[in-house]
Amino acid sequence: MASAQAVQEAAITGEKKKLWGGRFTGATDPLMEKFNESLPFDKRMWREDIRGSQAYAKALARAGVLTAEEAEQIVEGLGKVELEWEAGTFKIVSGDEDIHTANERRLTELIGSVGGKLHTGRSRNDQVATDTRLWLYGALQDTRGYLADLIKTAIDRAELDVDVIMPGFTHLQPAQAVRWSHWLLGHAAAWQRDDMRLRDLMPRVATLPLGSGALAGNPFGVDRQFIARELGFIGGVCPNSMDAVSDRDYVLDTLYFVAVHMAHLSRWAEDLIIYSSGLFKFVQCSDAYATGSSLMPQKKNPDALELIRGKAGRCQGNLAGLLAVMKGAPTTYNKDFQEAWQLMFDSVDTANDCIRIATGVLSTIRINPDRMLAGLSPDMLATDLAEYLVRKGVPFRETHHISGAAVKMAEDRGTTLFDLTVADLKTIHPLFEDDVLEVWDYNRSAEMRDTEGGASKRSVLEQAQKLKRYLGAEGL
């Protein structure tokens, strides 16, 4: 009687019945209403929720739960709901806890009681997992496109500036002469690995949980393979209904991909921040991606790069946050999992924005080859000096010490390696000949690194071609 009275009171007051409200007679704390709802952030999945529901209605008809006419009514009704969302006329009302509740409520308003048959055998547990997988699969396809554009931009800049020589650093100390293009393709190689990670992730995202019910499976014999095909799920169906509603690995995998890729973007940004500083002046960001100082008129700050570096930290925090949510949750669905969606949306949105900003920075950045050349110093050819004697048969461990002695001789004299004469070098080792002076050439130093993946012009151009072939093979 209490339940009947509650229903009657709801009808009198106009209160919307909740999908789960059959056994509840007391009112929900308004703060709890707000605390519980997810519609403010999951409404962005309105399209995916409608697609999943249309596919499920067709599956119910194939299973004999709905008539063909009822299924058609539901599919067409959902199409009208979709048009409202597209036009911006969909009205959210009190009681719309989430996108599933809102769409089903509006569907029933449009087509009547047959709309109530849509949820037969379905739970919001398998529904939300389906919606988020659909949304994520589409969003990550966009990510792959943005990432391909970034890699293509790196290839274009590398080929354009292939003759520019610059200092290479280890421990942020000047190390050896390399090409600007070699540095750039070094970052592109990391971005290629990121794309490989993303490619491998896609089938695990596009695996169908729908038809798992709340946890035990669907009692009406719906064809899950049919639903998977309808929705374009390339990974097939989740093999276990309990795991299907419990699994958020596809979100964790995505957050891991984002965290790693953002770490790569952050390191690239950090290099350019350093290279654009007044002490280096190797590069200058275009005005479109820099700002000035409110106090110092001379300043040009690489804010786009600094924001990428900062947002990388937030994305790493999102991954750690979701791992903390998941590690203590018991098997199957728990409301804790609702915390996954905002982290997912934030990480994917942030990555997509940062990749596009990085592409803009890279395509417009100006390099200063003269400053890069000025950043080279004779001591960066000390390894080349050691290698000169290696080619004359002296063991490298010995030539390393010999070259170090030459560096010390120059330091003691207050000069550079370039100022040492052949006679000076002969006092250190008798095998130094007049041709040792050829070592004092930065371009030659880079060209000597002509192995696959090295700093020579031929090798750098080969690296660019490999990246082009990879993108072509991936259809990007």
List keywords for this structure.
two-stranded antiparallel ribbon, Fumarase C, Chain A, domain 2, 476 residues, 3 domains, Ribonucleotide Reductase Protein R1, domain 1, Fumarase C, Chain B, domain 1, disordered N terminus, mainly alpha, elongated
Describe the structure.
By secondary structure, this protein is mostly helical. It folds into three domains: 116 residues, Orthogonal Bundle (Fumarase C, Chain B, domain 1), CATH 1.10.275; 251 residues, Fumarase C, Chain A, domain 2 (Up-down Bundle), CATH 1.20.200; 79 residues, Orthogonal Bundle (Ribonucleotide Reductase Protein R1, domain 1), CATH 1.10.40.30. 61% of the residues lie in helices and 4% in strands. The chain has a two-stranded antiparallel ribbon. It has a two-stranded antiparallel ribbon with strand order 3-4. The longest helix has 37 residues. It is elongated, with a radius of gyration of 31 Å. The N and C termini lie far apart (63 Å). One of its GO terms (cellular component) is cytosol. Its EC number is 4.3.2.1. Belongs to the lyase 1 family. Argininosuccinate lyase subfamily. GO terms for molecular function: argininosuccinate lyase activity.
